[in-house]
Design goal:
Blueprint: H1 2-14, H2 23-43, H3 50-72, H4 79-107, H5 113-133, H6 145-225, H7 231-261, E1 268-271, H8 272-289, E2 293-297, E3 304-307, H9 309-326, E4 332-340, E5 343-350, H10 381-391, E6 395-401, E7 405-413, H11 417-425
Parallel strand pairs: 2-4
Antiparallel strand pairs: 1-3, 4-5, 5-7, 6-7
Helix pairs in contact: 2-3, 2-4, 2-6, 3-4, 4-5, 5-6, 6-7, 8-9, 9-10
Length: about 425
Amino acid sequence: MRCICSAILCFFFSMPVAEYWFLVQSLALYGLCSCVVRLTALASDNAYLGVYCWVGRVLFLLQAALLILCVLIPVVPWAVWIHGKLTDLYYVDTFCCAAFFTVRGIMTKSWESRYTLTGCTIFGTGLLVNLLFSNRFEPIRFYWQFEWCGLLLVLLFGAMMVSRNRRILQENDMLTNHLEEQVKKRTKEVTQLLEERKAFFSDMAHDLKAPVFATRSFIEAIRKSNVGVDAELQGYLDQAEAKQWEMARRLQGLSAINALDKIEGEKSRVSLRELLREIDDIHRGEAEVQAVYLTVEPPGEDVFLMAQPEKLHILFENLIYNALRATPPGGSITVSALAEDGRIHVAVEDTGCGIPEEELSLIFRRFYVGANNRETGTGLGLYIVHSIVAELGGTISVQSTVGKGTKFLMEFPRYDASFRNSLAEG
């Protein structure tokens, strides 16, 4: 930094108009005074008030007038006297502004007030010495008295900025710790709320099973005895049985959701090839009983999913059961998978009755039952499938043609250490 300042001074001395080199010193002093006012204003929390705006304008006009007089000094001799008086006025104005903002900082109990108070004392002392002893004797140790004042101010405000930065870092740490504590607290509360919800639904499903099935038994008993059952009563029994069956389906779905919620534990790497082999072993017997051909096509290379294996089994179980219900004897179900571009693509396709086009946008809704499953569906199988896919960070879509079949397409992120390493090296 000293080399740069020396180079600037040498440049001004080497100019043809060498008498103007002192402009560098004047500009430095004006910059020092502006920084004093600015820093004291910041320390008083009044940096953007109208007072500071007006102060800045007045000081800027004084600086402009002083620079014009500096240019006129070599040409107009009387400009030296005016420049000296105006300079003293400029320094006095700077001190008054700094003192004003320092007092405001002390009143607002700003922590920087001790720095600004010390700075005003130094500046005021330097100003007093400059006014009383200006040009009375040679500078001490290469600097005039007011220049030593500026050096002390630079050191003082530098210490203030260091202290301010340390304080900001401490406040940031405190805020971060507070936010972490709040997040932990809220997470604990949400987790507790979810656990209470799970327990409530589990207890409700368990308690409702007895009256629901008892109602079914009463209806069956009335039908079998056929005592006093006329056409009108028969209609009421049919409606009661339909509502009872609807309630039973809802309870069955609620039990399925409770079973899914009870699956806990950390996610682990699951081999897709091994998973599909297990799916084939579990469901091949059921498909053969219904005379449906089940084909499982694993990917060419083994890839991994980061998931809970139990949930993956529930996902494929729901899709294959739906396909078995929709596929007539002699039909086929194909489960295929491939890895491409860091993603895993899985498809479950059947040659069943298909899904009407108007139902395709509704099948993933909770408790929605399509026209083909009014008697047996719970309306939760595909909802659970969609929830599991979303939990794994994947997507699911469906393609279907009535009378030809349905194809569910799923896409998951690929969790393979070797694949991630190859991406990082690339």
